[in-house]
């Protein structure tokens, strides 16, 4: 699955000017503070803006001064953050006719409100492009509260400027507002683009929370911190074939594991706990007593086997707590799962990178003179040529770790 095809960013945190082509499985590598997390936060920022509107999404990150690029020479003019994504999510989209969304925003002069609080004016404009039918495409533009619809085959306003007082506020995004439009005006297509970001999941396992029993009514969707791991695994166990495959992988990743069991837990609400049956040990081991790596492995497998995941999934430090011996299986399962959800994964492990294909690797660097992030720091086509030339004599992880591909301290 490759719903998100291209991401371009200008002046977003350390991403002064980047363009990244994405695949179903994308693994970001690079030194600390190279901008990997900023790239992932770019996607999360769009999701926050859909849920909370633009200013709250900015304030969540410390305000405009912390969102806008701060490197290089001091700028006297207002900085504009620009984000463009190309995707294939609407009905008539294809690789040759991609959906596209652009957001630009900047801060202007400071106004003092009646409450006495000073607040800078936030300027923003947006543009959507998509094919509404098999024929002509459509372009929607937003500037302030003004909303205009264009038929891109004629490049003239379809109905002129629309009355938008009931649709748009100065700081609300079309991503969150325009899905309410009638289908013939593009509401359905805008909603598909918005869903791509609003359902984005940053998977970051909270091991202490994942150890605990969880209420069965919380097992329908896997929480981003795996806090409902027990209930979600119990839900997956209803599909005998799927759970048998998950257990096989768990045995390969957790030494001595024989089976996964579930124990009902009494209380105010029906809950379940997970217990592990381990070779040569009497009784069963509760997750509360299981190792850190075992919890991480089970949580990652739950994420991978999720039958209804969001369209985008991000995982920071996916190798954390896992033995390199299991990386072959982990990468293969990620590839399998990438038919259901697109992955953006971060790692610092050369051993894991050794298992990747050149097309799956994205190398990140930071220019120490200007402070800007370089993504990709190595041309993917050049990486493929090097990989082909070496014919398996040296893995991508070894090439990266040696500094040949860049992305090292």
Automatic annotation (TrEMBL):
Q: Which InterPro entries match?
A: ATPase_AAA_core, P-loop_NTPase, RecF-like
PANTHER family assigned to the protein according to its UniProt record, in alphabetical order:
ATPASE AAA-TYPE CORE DOMAIN-CONTAINING PROTEIN, ATPASE-LIKE PROTEIN
- State one molecular function term (GO): ATP binding
Query: Where is the ATPase AAA-type core domain positioned along the sequence?
Result: 25-354
Q: What is this protein called?
A: ATPase AAA-type core domain-containing protein
Q: Which SUPFAM superfamilies match?
A: P-loop containing nucleoside triphosphate hydrolases (SSF52540)
